[in-house]
């Protein structure tokens, strides 16, 4: 498809903002999906093409967290397995299910997370020094991680909140380390869903790569912010993003 200068700038700017939002919290696809659809992409094609940017953004953020020693790898295998499995299931559903399911799923997720952060903030943002629960000792985490993978494979937007609920809420990682593991999971189940979308020929690579350029820069900046800002600031940023996600979901066509 032909990409105008306006479209290119729109993709780079929204990609940059989404890279920051997704790395620190979640919901950046609330910006990038509408941007892709404004260009005339059908919802299912925009949903698939968006995964190119998410993949590049995740690689960039993951390298940054690893460099700063914030990526806890002790549980990476047990955490990764259910999310990849869920990603394949979710992407398969997304390739064939009605696109009308995306909005209620997104809205429900945003509202639930906003309520949890407001009423029980310690669930999603444990204090520094809180003992970590290992996956093998927390069977409920398998459920939440699989659910996050299914949700992420299906719609992507807002999946960061579901992953944080599992990683910070169930496994009790602090927000910075939970964000690092969230990015780790996101990369792999996004790759899983990307394979499904490639097979179904749903990806437009040129807009996807332009979007990816913006997300890469945003993610690089966000890692530096995550390392420097206080957990309290991260918690309120997370809350703000859930409210924005709720509004975006309610106002979307």
UniProtKB/TrEMBL annotation:
Membrane spanning stretches: 7-27, 79-97, 104-123, 143-168, 180-198, 204-226, 233-251
Localization per Swiss-Prot or TrEMBL: Cell membrane
Membrane topology category: Multi-pass membrane protein
Entries under InterPro entries matching the protein: TM_pro_TauE-like, TSUP
Entry superkingdom: Bacteria
UniProt keyword terms in alphabetical order: Cell membrane, Membrane, Transmembrane, Transmembrane helix, Transport
A GO CC term assigned to this protein in UniProt: plasma membrane
Chief place where the protein resides: membrane
Cited Pfam families: TauE (PF01925)
Family: Belongs to the 4-toluene sulfonate uptake permease (TSUP) (TC 2.A.102) family.
Name of the featured protein: Probable membrane transporter protein
Species the sequence originates in: Shewanella loihica (strain ATCC BAA-1088 / PV-4)
Organism phylogeny: Bacteria, Pseudomonadati, Pseudomonadota, Gammaproteobacteria, Alteromonadales
């Amino acid at each position: 498809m032909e990409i105008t200068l306006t479209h290119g700038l729109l993709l780079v700017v929204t990609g940059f903002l989404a890279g920051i939002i997704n790395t620190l919290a979640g919901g950046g696809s609330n910006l990038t999906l509408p941007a892709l659809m404004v260009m005339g992409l059908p919802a299912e094609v925009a949903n698939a093409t968006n995964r190119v940017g998410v993949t590049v953004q995740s690689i960039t953020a993951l390298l940054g967290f690893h460099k700063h020693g914030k990526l806890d790898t002790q549980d990476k295998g047990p955490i990764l397995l259910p999310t990849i499995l869920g990603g394949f299931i979710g992407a398969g559903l997304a390739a064939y299910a009605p696109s009308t399911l995306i909005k209620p799923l997104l809205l429900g997720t945003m509202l639930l997370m906003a309520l949890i952060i407001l009423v029980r903030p310690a669930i999603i943002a444990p204090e520094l020094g809180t003992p970590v629960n290992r996956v093998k000792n927390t069977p409920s985490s398998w459920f939440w991680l699989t659910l996050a993978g299914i949700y992420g494979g299906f719609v992507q937007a807002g999946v960061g909140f579901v992953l944080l609920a599992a990683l910070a809420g169930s496994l009790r990682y602090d927000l910075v380390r939970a964000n690092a593991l969230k990015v780790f999971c996101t990369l792999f189940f996004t790759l899983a869903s990307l394979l499904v979308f490639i097979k179904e020929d749903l990806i437009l690579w040129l807009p996807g790569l332009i979007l990816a350029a913006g997300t890469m820069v945003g993610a690089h900046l966000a890692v530096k912010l995550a390392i420097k800002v206080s957990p309290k600031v991260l918690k309120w940023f997370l809350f703000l993003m859930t409210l924005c996600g709720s509004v975006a979901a309610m106002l979307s066509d």
